[in-house]
Amino acid sequence: MAFVYWLHLEKHKDMLKDGYIGVTPNLQKRIREHKHKFKSIWNEIVVETIETSDLDTCYELEKKLRPSRNIGWNIAPGGFRNNIMFGVENPNFGKVGKDAPNYKGAYICPLGRFERPMDISKIYQIAVSTVIRKCKGRFANGRFLQPQDGWAFEQKV
Hints:
Largest sheet: 3 strands, antiparallel
Shape: elongated
Number of strands: 8
Distance between the termini: 47 Å
Structural class: alpha+beta
């Protein structure tokens, strides 16, 4: 179950042009998040629930009420879940190592070459940040400390 809601001032009468239209599965939590953004006028804000339905239906309604950018207080167009694709919808779902879009390079330790620092951290039972520090080196007290012997980072080309 999800909610389509309208945040507006008392003087706002047209939900197609005024205020903020949003969708959330947890209305109370989302209102608390908005309270910070609108803190200077929060005492004047009116919260109205427009629709209570399943998430997809709510996003379709939001898309109709906010079809483009910069309508009322909304910056983005409605109905897009902030352009986030969840699970198998995301083309990068399940990609790790060289296939991942954020792949930076290989981590080398005395036991071999690994695509992810997480793999080395499991073998040595140390933190991922420790693996990264041992492979890449680090800055400390204004100077660079070299990677440990036998450890290295090979940058992707």
